[in-house]
């Protein structure tokens, strides 16, 4: 025992020199240089581009980019599919990008992801979602690295490592996984109020999408379109799902995480395999350069959106995802996106978050994918030829012939040679830039709350209630000082919101505060989204002895409406109707759950067991509490009557209507029935 203790003491002595306590210390670089500012990257003027000489930013971001191997630091949990994009031609007056010319079809690869969790985390967590698209154009690869929310937490890329450190599991105990409901994240939010707008999006239903197929995508940043005449327009990018924007409810999302942690990826895979190809329209908001300062917010601020009522979205093409991956690692995990992968006609702005990402993404791929040749991995290779003087390095696949690998040269006729803009060579927009070298932020970025209030004003009463509940859940997981600080911040957005959340989490409600913004944007509310029956999934609770003449026309009509159904019964095999009709059982009650369906159709049979009836009641109660449509016939009507669920919105029975199938499909299409009494 004594020998063992001596060994342990020696080990502790060896480790002691590496232990550090950073509290109450001055902030320094890794070289020991004291840092005077850690909030802003070094720019040429307060609204100018980030400078390469910013060694502090590069050191901080490089270290952050290399913190995890081999999975991504953020967006580790992802799933992807192949597809095709076809341009409408409506963008041609504004950009010379070849893939946006009318009728041009371009292969694409899209990766959807959660941000916070590791590769093994669940998919229905409350989180921002990634929505990244690689266009394999004839002019080179173009990557639109988007999210399902139009704004981000921070305004300057130098703060990104701090944000991710705060939202990731806390390092002393590695908890919680894939969740923001903990002290360090909300401590960060309280001290970085520029996050207020993105946070309220995260507390809204957008953070728990029903499906990748029912999720918007946004480029977040302001980019530029450049046309053939060299004229510039500021542009924001949008993906609009043809099925509309729909979400889960929080209780449902939590249960799905346990019942099927692969819920979203399975939904995407199965839809494509079934030929129900997800479709998204590609839209842009365009702003003439001369209108840069016409709004009450800075158009370069990544924590701000452009209200669609002020700057309409013009549709410029449609994307269809039509093929699943063959190998998740080779494709989904090895794909490398980068906002700096652009084509002629698309350029950058001085958005300080975008400027930092242009450095960070290449730096990240170097460690994740084993060196500088990640572009040679099949999923990343462009469809057009590429030629340059880059050579060797880890995982080099190209076998370059000849002895020349420099430019200019005479031994290879001065090739490969730069191409002029007329020949398709990329030319940066010649924006005039002047300013002192400063670590600062433009005063036009100082408004942190007005658009958070705009978002709140735009929500329906139900959506507002969900936001209150989300803040209450998240902050309720934090220590009291963190709760109090965040209520103070929230009071700057909306006083009623802050008071309701405060009352729920045991904090003294604020007496005053709130933004005076009264404007709203109806486009932000999911209440106004497209509502279709297409691909909605119905669970059919059915047993032997059902009336096939009544039930089969309903099931056939569901299929004709592009809906899907699965037969759920007590045992696997077949269930047989009184008229001899047979249905193959998809699931038993133990292999599926009500939360995995958009609606239920309760049928039963004349001789169901007590166990069947008990399970059916459980399924119906779950669906009812999650505001889903429920249709019922035969024995199913009796179950609803016993549970006192009849005469409620979204409940359709054959005994109450002569046009059951039509009304049931309409009820399912509505997605949720929020005016239902679930008390």
Which key terms come to mind for this protein?
six-stranded parallel beta sheet; Catalase HpII,  Chain A, domain 1; 17 helices; alpha+beta; globular; Catalase_clade2; ten-stranded antiparallel beta sheet; single chain; 20 strands; 28% helix; Hemocyanin, N-terminal domain; Rossmann fold; 679 residues
Note down, in words, how this protein is organized:
- Residues 1-22 have a biased composition (Basic and acidic residues).
- This protein folds into 3 domains: 46-152 and 209-380, Catalase HpII,  Chain A, domain 1 (Beta Barrel); 452-527, Catalase, four-helical domain (Hemocyanin, N-terminal domain); 531-669, Class I glutamine amidotransferase (GATase) domain (Rossmann fold).
- It is built from 17 helices and 20 strands.
- The chain has helices spanning 2-16, 55-65, 160-167, 183-191, 196-203, 250-259, 263-273, 328-333, 352-368, 450-458, 461-476, 480-490, 495-505, 548-560, 610-625, 635-642, 660-669; strands spanning 42-44, 78-87, 105-114, 129-137, 140-147, 217-218, 223-226, 232-241, 279-288, 314-324, 346-347, 437-439, 537-542, 564-569, 574-576, 582-584, 587-588, 599-604, 629-632, 651-653.
- Helix 3 packs antiparallel against helix 4, helix 4 packs parallel to helix 12 (480-490) and helix 5 runs parallel beside helix 10.
- The longest helix is centred in the middle third of the chain and has 17 residues, at 352-368.
């Amino acid at each position: 025992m004594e020998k063992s203790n001596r060994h342990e003491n020696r080990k502790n002595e060896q480790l002691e020199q590496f232990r550090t306590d950073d509290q109450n210390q001055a902030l320094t670089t890794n070289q020991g240089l004291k840092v005077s500012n850690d909030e802003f990257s070094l720019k040429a003027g307060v609204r100018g581009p980030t400078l390469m000489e910013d060694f502090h930013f590069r050191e901080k971001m490089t270290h952050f980019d290399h913190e995890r191997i081999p999975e991504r630091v953020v967006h580790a949990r992802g799933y992807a599919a192949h597809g095709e994009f076809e341009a409408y031609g409506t963008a041609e007056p504004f950009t010379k990008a070849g893939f946006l010319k009318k009728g041009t079809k371009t292969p694409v690869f899209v990766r959807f992801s959660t941000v916070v969790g590791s590769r093994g985390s669940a998919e229905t967590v409350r989180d921002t979602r990634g929505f990244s698209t690689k266009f394999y154009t004839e002019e080179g690869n173009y990557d639109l690295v988007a999210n399902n929310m139009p704004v981000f937490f921070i305004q300057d890329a130098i703060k990104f490592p701090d944000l991710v450190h705060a939202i990731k599991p806390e390092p002393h105990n590695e908890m919680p996984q894939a969740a923001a409901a903990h002290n360090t994240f909300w401590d960060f939010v309280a001290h970085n109020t520029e996050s207020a707008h993105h946070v309220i999006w995260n507390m809204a239903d957008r953070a728990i999408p029903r499906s990748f197929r029912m999720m918007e995508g946004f480029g977040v940043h302001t980019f530029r379109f450049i046309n053939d005449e060299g004229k510039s327009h500021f542009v924001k990018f949008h993906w609009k799902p043809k099925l509309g924007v729909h979400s889960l409810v929080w209780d449902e999302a939590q249960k799905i995480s346990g019942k099927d942690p692969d819920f979203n990826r399975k939904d995407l895979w199965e839809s494509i395999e079934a030929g129900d190809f997800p479709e998204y329209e590609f839209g842009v908001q365009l702003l003439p350069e001369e209108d840069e300062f016409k709004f009450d917010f800075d158009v370069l601020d990544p924590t701000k959106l452009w209200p669609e009522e002020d700057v309409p979205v013009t549709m410029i093409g449609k994307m269809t995802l039509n093929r699943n991956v063959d190998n998740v690692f080779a494709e989904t995990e090895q794909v490398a996106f980068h906002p700096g992968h652009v084509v002629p006609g698309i350029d950058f702005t001085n958005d300080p978050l975008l400027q930092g990402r242009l450095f960070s993404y290449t730096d990240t791929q170097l460690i994740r994918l084993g060196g500088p040749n990640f572009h040679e991995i099949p999923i990343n290779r462009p469809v057009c030829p590429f030629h340059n003087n880059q050579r060797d390095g880890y995982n080099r696949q190209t076998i370059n012939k000849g002895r020349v690998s420099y430019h200019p040269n005479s031994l290879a006729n001065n090739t490969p040679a730069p191409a002029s803009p007329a020949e398709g060579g990329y030319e940066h927009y010649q924006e005039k830039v002047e300013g002192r070298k400063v670590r600062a932020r433009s005063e036009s970025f100082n408004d942190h709350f007005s658009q958070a209030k705009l978002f709140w004003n735009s929500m329906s009463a139900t959506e507002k209630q969900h936001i209150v509940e989300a803040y209450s859940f998240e902050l309720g997981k934090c220590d009291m000082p963190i709760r109090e600080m965040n209520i103070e911040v929230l009071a700057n957005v909306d006083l009623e919101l802050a008071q309701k959340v405060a009352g729920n989490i045991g904090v003294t409600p604020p007496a005053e505060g709130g933004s005076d913004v009264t404007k709203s944007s109806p486009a932000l509310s999911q209440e106004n989204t497209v509502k279709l029956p297409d691909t909605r999934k119905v669970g059919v609770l059915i047993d032997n002895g059902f009336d096939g003449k009544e039930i089969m026309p309903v099931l056939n009509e569901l299929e004709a409406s592009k809906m899907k159904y699965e037969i759920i019964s007590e045992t696997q095999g077949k269930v047989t109707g009184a008229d001899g009709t047979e249905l193959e059982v998809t699931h038993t009650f133990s292999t599926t759950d009500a939360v995995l369906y958009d609606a239920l159709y309760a049928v039963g049979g004349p001789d169901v067991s007590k166990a069947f009836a008990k399970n059916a009641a459980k399924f119906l109660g779950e669906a009812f509490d999650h505001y889903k449509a429920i249709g019922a016939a035969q024995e199913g009507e009796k179950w609803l009557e016993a549970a006192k669920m009849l005469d409620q919105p979204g409940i359709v029975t054959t005994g109450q209507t002569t046009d059951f199938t039509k009304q049931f499909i309409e009820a399912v299409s509505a997605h949720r029935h929020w005016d239902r009494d679930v008390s």
